[in-house]
Amino acid sequence: MRGAKSRMQISDHRSSAMTEMHRATARSRWIVWTSALLCACALATSVHAADGDAAVQRALQQAISRPAPAQVDAQAVETLSFRRDAAVSARVQQETIRAFGRNPQQVADLEKVIGSGEMLREFDKILRRYGYDPTNLGDVLAAHLLISWEVVNDRDSRQSPAGQRAVRRQLIGPLAAVPEVAEMSDAAKQAQAERTAYLTMVSALTYQTLKRDGNRQALTALSASVRQGLQGNGVDLQRVTLGEGGLVTR
Predict the structure, then answer these.
(1) CB neighbours of residue 88 within 10 Å
(2) What is the pLDDT, as a whole number, of residue 52?
(3) pLDDT in tens, 164-184
C-alpha cells in the first residue's frame, strides 16, 4: 500500500509539473504573438481615413491638451457611432488571424480567442464598465488611449473613475470634427474600431500576464512598444496624467 501511495504521489507531482509547464509554454507563446501583433498593428492606433491622418493626429493632440468638456455634443456622438455588421466582424477576424498566425498552432489558438468572438466580447465588457459604447469609434479609441496609458505607465485607471469617464468626452468632439472621419461609412468605422480593439486587448492581456509573472524586462519592452505606437500619432503617454479632466498633457 505504501508503494502504491508513493507512486500516486509521484504521479500527482508529475501531473502538476506538466500542467505548469504547459501554462508557461502558453504564456511564452502569447508573449511571442504579442511582439508580432504590436509591431504589425502599430498603424491600428490611429484612424486611417483617406488623407486625413494628419488631421486625426491634430485632433488627438488637441484632445489631450486640455481637460474634458462637461458634456459632449450629441451630434458628435452620432457621427462616430456605427451599426455592427456580422460580415464586417468576420472579415476583420480572419484578416487578424491571417496576419498574425505564423504557423498552424498559432492559427488554431488565435481562432479560439479571436475567431470565437471571445476577445471582442471581453473588450465590449471593459468598455461598458467605463460607461463607453463599443459601437462608437470615439469611445473605442478613447479606451485604447486609456488602456495604453495604463500599460506605458504601469498604472491602474480604476483609481480615477471620473478620469475614465472623462477621456471619451475629450476625444469624441475633436475626432468627429475631422471631415475624413465624419465621412467614414459604418463598415469603415466598425473595421477600424475592431482592429483597434484587438490591438488593445493583446496589449492589455500581455501586460497582465507579464505583471503576474513579475517579468520586469518584458514589461519594459512592452511599455516602450506601446508608447512608440502612440508617439507616431503625436501622443507621448509618459507625458500625460489621468485626472478628473481625463488624460491631459503635463
Answers:
(1) 19
(2) 53
(3) 999 999 999 999 999 989 999
Residue in this structure with the C-alpha cell 479609441, named with its chain if needed? 141
Q: What is the pLDDT of residues 115-167, one digit of tens each?
A: 888 889 999 999 999 899 999 999 999 999 999 999 999 999 999 999 999 99
Query: Does the global pTM surpass 0.70?
Result: yes
CB of 81 closer than 8 Å to CB of 135: yes
From the list 157, 149, 137, the residue with the least C-alpha distance to 230 is 149
> Look-up: residue for cell 501511495?
5
Rounded Cα gap, residues 154 and 78, in angstroms: 33
Distance from C-alpha of 221 to C-alpha of 171, rounded to nearest angstrom: 27
Closest among 153, 124, 128 to 230, alpha carbons compared: 153
The position carrying cell 479571436 is 114
- Amino acid identity for residue 102 in this structure: R
Q: Give the other-Cβ count within 10 Å of 231's Cβ.
A: 13
Number of separate helices (H) and strands (E) present in the chain: 11, 2
Cell numbers found for residue 122: 471581453
